[in-house]
Amino acid sequence: MVRPFAVKGHKRKKNKTERYDKEEDEDEQENAGFVEQESEEEGVQKKFKSGVTDEEEAAQELVGIPVSLNEKQGNDKNTPSVVFVLEKASLEVAKFERSYQLLNSEDHANFLKKNNRNPAEYRPDISHQAILNILDSPLNKAGKLKALYVRTEKGVLIEIKPHVRIPRTFKRFAGIMLQLLQKLSISAVGKREKLLRVIKNPVTQYLPVNSRKIGFSHSSEKLVDMHDYVATVDKDATLVFVVGAMAHGKIECDYIEDFISISGYPLSAAYCITRITNALERKHGIV
Questions:
Q1: Cα 225 from Cα 207, distance rounded (Å)
Q2: Which of 14-23, 70-79, 98-107 has the largest mean confidence?
Q3: Which domain range does residue 156 map to?
């Protein structure tokens, strides 16, 4: 006798909570009985192996990324430190046929227009340039950079270790970001140390206690000379610089204590960071 219909159970709704690298919360998870579920995006990836894009190929070539030994050895926890936060970074992944790609205005303009999105807002190259300027600065090489955080337009929070060596070309950078947003962490070559991680919001829980949080905007009425501004700050104080990594607009963060403008002209994120690092290098005598 044939069953007239199949008995179906209730489908379990997928957990839509924030995705981040859960390693830091292992103890909390054991106490709360939390079980990490496979995301829809990761599940789809396992269903196909063809159609690899240039970005995915670049990510596969960089299973781990190298460490710059000079920066790591020069990092002294007892010295005054600096923290950078890049806000509203355009780092978003989308699926194209059988592959995933990091959206950018140059390669995906037609796709973005069809989906009623403004291509001008998808500029991951801004984040790439800003990150390189921070990590390449003598300030970082002297061990003054304590941490670097990047928060995307979608609210994903990324931690980048000061001694990581980010790829110089945008194609390879896009591959690394694609891998990071899918796997939630990237380790050093031949090591278990995680150099890039997606971490839990908000960013304020990682900022040093009693640190001075400074935001930058051309629209701010407080126009200052960056060299004079940092000269008035206590040498032992920890400074947190919040810079927008988007093409247009203004960052709006409730944790910022002081909004300043450092030029009478609009500056790119990369050049704004250059002015900040140069002023701090002069203050600390870093040549």
A1: 25
A2: 98-107
A3: 39-283
**Domain for residue 25, yes or no?**
no
- 3 state DSSP class of 232: coil
CATH number at residue 278: 3.40.1280.10
H or E element, residue 100: strand 99-102
pLDDT at residue 15 in the model: 53
Q: Which residue has the tokens 């990369």?
A: 270
CB 164 within 8 A of CB 195: yes
Please count the structural domains in the chain. Answer: 1
Structural domain includes residue 188: yes
φ, ψ for residue 243, nearest 5 deg: -120, 140
What type of residue sits at position 148? L
Domain-located, residue 72: yes
Cα 246 to Cα 111: distance, rounded to the nearest angstrom: 20
Residue 33 maps to a domain: no
For 188-234, write each residue's pLDDT tens digit.
877 788 999 999 999 999 999 989 999 999 999 999 999 999 998 88
Q: Which two tokens mark 29? A: 């998870």
Residue recorded with tokens 């963060």: 253
pLDDT digits (tens, 9 = 90+) for 117-170: 988 889 999 999 999 999 999 999 999 999 999 999 999 999 999 999 999 999
Listed residue (253, 233, 232, 244) closest to 273, CA to CA: 244
Q: Which amino acid is residue 248, in one-letter code? A: H
